[in-house]
Amino acid sequence: EAQVTQNPRYLITVTGKKLTVTCSQNMNHEYMSWYRQDPGLGLRQIYYSMNVEVTDKGDVPEGYKVSRKEKRNFPLILESPSPNQTSLYFCASSSYPGTGGFEQYFGPGTRLTVT
Amino acid sequence: QKEVEQNSGPLSVPEGAIASLNCTYSDRGSQSFFWYRQYSGKSPELIMFIYSNGDKEDGRFTAQLNKASQYVSLLIRDSQPSDSATYLCAVTTSGTYKYIFGTGTRLKVLA
Q1: What is the pLDDT of residues A78-100, one digit of tens each?
Q2: What span, in angstroms and rounded, lies between the C-alpha atoms of B23 and B65?
Q3: For a designed S-S bond to A45, which of A3, A18, A58, B101 qualifies (C-beta 3.0 to 4.6 A apart)?
C-alpha cells in the first residue's frame, strides 16, 4: 500500500529536550516536505526537499532542522523545542513537481506538545 | 496581505445544492493551484489541481482559475453531507517548489 508514515503520532516533551519526528514514504517520490498546522494559521511549510541531499526552507524554518540522506526518509529535528512549537505536524511527499501540478500525499500527522 | 486568502466560513449549503469555495492569491508568479479536503482530525487529501486559465471538471468538482483576477474557485455540485470538511487552497510559484496554503474554508452540508 502506497503511504507516508510518521512516528510518533503523539508526543509530549519538555522545553529543550531534543527530538526527532520520522517520516518515510514507499512511493519512490523525489519531493518531500514538512508542515505545521495551527488553528487560524492553516498549514505552513517548514522545509522541503527536492531529492537526496537537497533541502530548502519553507515559510517557517526557524527552530527546525531536516536531513535527506535517503530518498524514502525525511526526518524533522527539533534541537531545542519550545512551547511555541506545540502543533500538529504533517509530512508529505510527491513525485517530481515538473512544470505542472503535483499531488502531495500526506502522512497521518504528529501531534506535538512542548511544556 | 496574506499570500493565499480564503473565507474561513462556515459555509452552509443544503444537500443537493452547489457549494462555491473561493480563494485569492497575491503572487502573480503563482503557477500551480490545488484544492485539498481535510476532514476533522485527518490529513489533507488532494481533490484537484489546475494550472491553466479556465475550468477543469472532475466528477462533481469543478476548479476555476482566473490568473488575471488572481482567484481560483472550487464548485461542488450535488453537495452531500459527506462533503462537510475544511477545504484548503494551495499555490506554488514558478522557480521554487514552496507550497503556500490558505487557512481553509469550513463547509457544512445540511441534510
Answers
A1: 999 999 999 999 999 988 766 55
A2: 10
A3: A58
What pLDDT does B92 receive? 87
pLDDT tens, B51-60?
899 999 999 9
Taking CA–CA distances from A49, the nearest residue in chain B reads: B97
The answer to whether B51 touches B67, Cβ cutoff 8 Å, is no
d(CA B45, CA B59): 16
Residue A115, min C-alpha distance to chain B (Å): 22
Distance from CA of B46 to the nearest CA of A (A): 7
Q: Is the Cβ–Cβ distance between B85 and B39 less than 8 Å?
A: yes
**How far separated are the first and last CA of chain A, in Å rounded?**
36
Write the DSSP assignment of B55-105 as a string of letters: EEEETTEEEEEETTTTEEEEEESS--GGG-EEEEEEEEETT---EEE---E
Cβ A57 vs Cβ A47: under 8 Å: yes
B34 SS3 class: strand
Mean pLDDT across B71-99? 92
**pLDDT above 80 (res B24):** yes
